[in-house]
UniProtKB/TrEMBL annotation:
Coiled coil: none annotated. Residues 59-294 form the NAD-dependent epimerase/dehydratase domain. Pathway: Amino-acid degradation; L-threonine degradation via oxydo-reductase pathway; glycine from L-threonine: step 1/2. GO terms for biological process: L-threonine catabolic process. This is L-threonine 3-dehydrogenase, mitochondrial. The gene is tdh. InterPro entries: Epimerase_deHydtase, NAD(P)-bd_dom_sf, NAD(P)_epim/dehydratase.
Amino acid sequence: MPVFRTLSKVAKQALLSTPGCSCQPLTVAVRNISFSPRQVTSDASFHSVSFSETDHPKVLITGGLGQLGVGLAKLLRKRFGKNNVILSDIRKPPSNVFHSGPFIYSDILDYKNLREIVVNNRITWLVHYSALLSAVGEANVALARSVNINGLHNILDIAAEHGLRLFVPSTIGAFGPTSPRNPTPDLCVQRPRTIYGVSKVHAELMGEYYHHRYGLDFRCLRYPGIISADSMPGGGTTDYAVQIFHDAIKSGKFECNLRPDTRLPMMYIDDCLRATLEVMEAPVDTLSMRTYNINAMSFTPEELAQELQKQMPELDVTYDVDHVRQAIADSWPMNFDDSNARKDWGWKHDYDLPELVQTMLNFFGAETLMARAN
Ligand SMILES: NC(=O)c1ccc[n+]([C@@H]2O[C@H](COP(=O)([O-])OP(=O)(O)OC[C@H]3O[C@@H](n4cnc5c(N)ncnc54)[C@H](O)[C@@H]3O)[C@@H](O)[C@H]2O)c1
Ligand SMILES: C[C@@H](O)[C@H](N)C(=O)O
């Protein structure tokens, strides 16, 4: 493989050019010469562009048209300026997204295209959101394996070659039935039973490996199920907790595909996006780890329905269990221990269940009023 041929050649040269260092570990030699895994000699001089500390980062978000990307772009653009944050995806953006800031086509399976985007736009931060989530992953394992694993390899190599700060989200789905589930700490057995979970454990381990081996500034948060009002989830096991609001407002009825007592960690999108910005901005010396659990609340479908029924007493919730999703949920954490994130870089959530429900209902209430007014 070219990567490893180049690696051994560069490492050999580094060892030979340092007198009396035959006992030096390979990793140190490699990191000291800023080697990157797919680097080709003819390109070497292009990889050393340095940015002053005061420059805003230039951010690329992959898979940016999913549930989380558009909101993250909005937050980062507010902080770093509209033109410093590029959204990308393989889908056609809706016109409001297209007109709200830079958008570019990027297929993460196309290494050269990705590299060209990073070079031409002088990208310094990469937020890698492209993925197939848990339920759609089980329905198309080959595609999930390709996007979530091969795609990640392209991202890691490009980030290492160009000295990028890289954020890759992981998930509660990176744990499995043999993990402690209540609570689930950062470090414990991880034997997920979905291709999604397996690919996320792979991403955590590969990112940490590239950090130790090549000095890649890899940062990773394990998100709980994320709840948002203005963007729809892309085929996960926690989707019911978003769908219930849409159906409650539209029809006053909701049929849940998980059992009423299925407890899962959840978070409102604003907390999730703020955590992502905070960990990306955290000084290196505050990060005792590179992969952190983050959490806000844990609830069951029944508890969520009861909280909604406080404001919509007529809401009718029934249950028709989807066995694939239920099996996945039954293998995931019930409560997430995020004490390391709170201790190291000051993570603190703002939304508990009552605030979440109120915020979601306010959003839909405002939308309904606007629709009536038009
Ligand atoms: N939403 C959640 O509840 C949640 C929870 C934990 C972790 N995460 C993680 O956060 C990230 C973003 O999640 P999301 O909910 O926005 O996902 P999503 O499914 O809504 O969006 C994923 C996006 O990836 C894009 N994509 C697919 N194949 C691609 C390819 N070959 N090249 C480029 N883009 C491609 C899709 O078009 C889609 O827009 C994912 O990595 C996910 O695993 C999400
Ligand atoms: C939890 C998360 O990774 C995603 N919402 C899913 O259910 O697949």
